[in-house]
Amino acid sequence: MQIKQMEGQAGLPLFQHHGKRIALTEGGSLVLRHCRVILADLTAAEQSLANLMTGGIQRLRVGMITSGSHFFPHLIHSFMQGKTMIDLDMKVRSRDQLLTMLRDEQIDLAVMVHPPVSPNIVARPFGANPFVLVSSASHPLAFEQHIPYARIASECLIVREGGTDTRGVADETFRSQESSPRFMELGCAEAIKQSVIAGMGISLLAVQEVQSEVRAGLLKVLDVQGFPLKRHWNVVHRADRPLPPAARDFRQFLLTEAGAWLQHFAGIDDTYMEMDKRMSDDDDLGAMHVPPDLALLPLASSDSQRLPDKR
Question: Is there a domain that residue 100 lies in?
């Protein structure tokens, strides 16, 4: 359909021209939102009909942030054991991309660290995901204990790009401080780890991301006051859409079994537990203020945790 025909049927402009560029008007954005809903409903109808034709085969559409790609396939594999009637459609994207896919109903579930604070979203924590500061094994700080936060303010912190959960943790942890490390941005966790190993700086990463390199002696977890940061993995879905059976079963699996599985997979050993105990017992930790919205999310007693919109 031509643009003029679309605008004629709508009765108002849907597009506006900016030189050679075309952008949506407010009316165009409204039509786009409704079109997405219609297309999602058509996809759901096609899937339901396909299920009838194939004897009840279900589709699990789930998204995972990139920092979890090292363990999430193993978790999926554990869930899929014996489930021959489920087809898997798994996406690995940034946090912001997953939220867009949830909105557009391209996925039914998303797994991330920082769920959006929105009445349209149901989020539930299911497993620990502590963050630690790491350096190369030869870095001067690697040989020290009880390092005050002020010591790392002069370091170069190698971080992920904006729109990722890992970058969100770094921004909210360090940007609120009077002094913070210099940021160097790289596009993936593997590049960050190799840069840290090469001595280009330090980084803030999840324990589950660095476990192999720490055990191999390539990276060292820094004993910095206020760390490790306590975070959780969260399973997220839309509040206004019922979950398909496969997504509902996988969500229940995450909430009941994934926590213990993650701890075993990551091998969070006594080193981290002892650092965590010192973090809780140390009276001087007020020097580093961790924003309240980054505090460890408590496990909700109800089935879901609805969060107001965060701008």
Answer: no
